[in-house]
Amino acid sequence: AQSVTQLDSHVSVSEGTPVLLRCNYSSSYSPSLFWYVQHPNKGLQLLLKYTSAATLVKGINGFEAEFKKSETSFHLTKPSAHMSDAAEYFCVVTHYSSASKIIFGSGTRLSIRP
Amino acid sequence: DAGVIQSPRHEVTEMGQEVTLRCKPISGHNSLFWYRQTMMRGLELLIYFNNNVPIDDSGMPEDRFSAKMPNASFSTLKIQPSEPRDSAVYFCASGDRAGNTIYFGEGSWLTVV
Predict the structure, then answer these.
(1) Least CB-CB distance to B55: which of A43, A49, A100?
(2) Hey, CA dihedral for A59, A65, A67, A73, is it positive or negative?
(3) What is the pLDDT of residues A15-46, one digit of tens each?
């Protein structure tokens, strides 16, 4: 069985400060893990993905995430927040053998203070 | 590539009317998903196709909802008759042949009054 937990429903940071969005997963197999971003009134855009290659994954817009098997975590980080980063972020877990079992986290809303 | 294309982007319809949402997946992708997003329930998987065949439709809310994929480049989601509680954003997504990365369209915003 697979599951994903986003530990914070809302994160607020000041512009220029680091961003940390937390995600923990549970999987019976070696998982594939993703982060998607959804800006207001937009679709979900793929930020980055981990599929058993390098554990530190770099994505678009300066975001990166590190796969830590021992902690079953896949936290999303960015060194310096920008106003345009304000959006909803979804952590996703799946396994290549079952594309229909794509499990979305409940989402984290990121707010950026000027 | 143009990405996943959905139409219409916005639709307002009266209760009882038929609604048809359309999706063109990314060329070469062999899996297609329909999701519904609401504030109350978040993202819900409605149905999943693989090679044009419905594999998992357990998320389809009731018989008023139906989905088809007549060929690899087109899918429809139909609601008949529509009800106000169907108001939501409906997303189509397609998956690459590796089977584990999906790409979303911009969504169809449906309001049933």
Answers:
(1) A100
(2) negative
(3) 999 999 999 998 877 788 999 999 998 899 99
